[in-house]
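Reading a protein record of the kind used here takes only a little practice. The integers have meaning only within a learned vocabulary of local backbone shapes. With that in mind, consider the following protein and its fold in token form:
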Amino acid sequence: MRRYQHQVLAGLLFISVVLIAVIVFTGAGTLADKLRDFPVLLLIPVFLLKVVNWALRYAEWRYFLGVIGVRTVHGDPARAAAPDASPAIHERDSILLWLAGLTLSLSPGKLAEVLKSLVVKNLTGVPFSRTVPVVFIERLVDGLAVILLAAGSLILAAPSFAPDTVSPATVRGVLIGTTLALLAGIAVLQIRPLADWLLDRLRGWPLVGRFHEPLRTLYDATYDLLRLRHLVITVGFGLGAYFTDCIGFTLLLRGLGVTLTWTLLAQATFILGFSVIIAALSAMPGGAGGRELTVGALLSGIVGLSKADTGTATFLISIFQVWLGVLVGLGVIVLARHILFPPALDAEIAAYEAARSAASD
């Protein structure tokens, strides 16, 4: 457990450094003046929109758990279960775990998020190899949703691009390249005969062969999660979730004095969506650094904000996109650690680490 704590702390340190860099770029005094003049009441709908974002993304997580055979129940899972019923997780525990994941995602490469699967195994008994694909496919689905939002808003926002700052052709290239890579990966994973053939070949390998069954379980779960009928529903959740963030970002810009128009909404949607893509590609903890640089450059080149307004907007979106979730997640981890991270979880972590170590030897 200590290893994952260190990973999260390293991510927390990194995003803190990035936030400090934004403050230095803007100027502490200038930022303080801008925040002092910001209409405080506008922060209320922005916060509520963030809560809607979390609710939709939790619905996506809950749906994925259902796909892999984990029921979400409101009573005691042990009492509610019939002899032949599928494994179940208490709704409260599922919500707490998802919220804790807002902090776990800070780890480099989001490696600490595997703890979510280990927690689910400890709570339900479902094999780790069955649940771990959910953690990564959540990110894939969110990526598809953000690409759709960025591509759609690009049509409306492109005329306002400053030619010497933002190239629509470059943006289209990034969007098309990322989309093709994601779709190609999904398509390959949906070719079941190919996967069966590869898994059968791996069975005879000296080291990998002993993990044949977990690999088979992992692939079966991944295959189920990526079925088109499930992707349509979960990408829909993702579209709704990230569009609420885009509306919130638009309101933040309005608070800085930018005229509220449909064009501004399109610009904000594109900027936020494209920054999320760049942040994901950067693989930095919490997407920090890549997101702030992208938001800052696009606000200047598309919306035409001054340095002070650009820095303030970047600071605010960092607070609502990252820090708010991180603080909520930390609070949940501290208050619900006896539910999510009981002593029994240490055995699950030890078994996982041992298996991973054996696979790498």
Observations:
- Residues 17 and 289 are 9 Å apart (CA to CA).
- The beta strands are 71-73, 88-90.
